[in-house]
User: What shape does this take?
Amino acid sequence: IAGSFNLIGMTALTVLFGFQLAASFVSLGWGIAAITGVIAGIALKDRTLRISSFLVLGAMIVRILLIDLSNLDTVYRILTFILIGIFLLGTSWIYHRYLGQQTPDNSPQT
Assistant: This one.
């Protein structure tokens, strides 16, 4: 039940950012919400919160690729792709750093 409330909360936060922020800051707001959700999901050991945060992260990337990049020059597009790559690598590193250490009780540790 707590996972359902986390999912509803993350969805409401994403929609709120979409309506309240200026168009150029929506992707940034979604990114901050996604990273905060991933970190909170790791700290609280809440799988639903982590998954919903990754869905928001995916929505942010789709928005950047389809909407935000259409207004940028070539140099800024290249920089945006580099920053997205760094952002995804950092998120992946954080996720695997803190959750990769946890193993089920039955499996041997390597």
About this structure: The longest helix spans residues 74-99. The chain is about 75% helix and 0% strand. The mean pLDDT is 79. The CA atoms of residues 61 and 85 lie 10 Å apart.
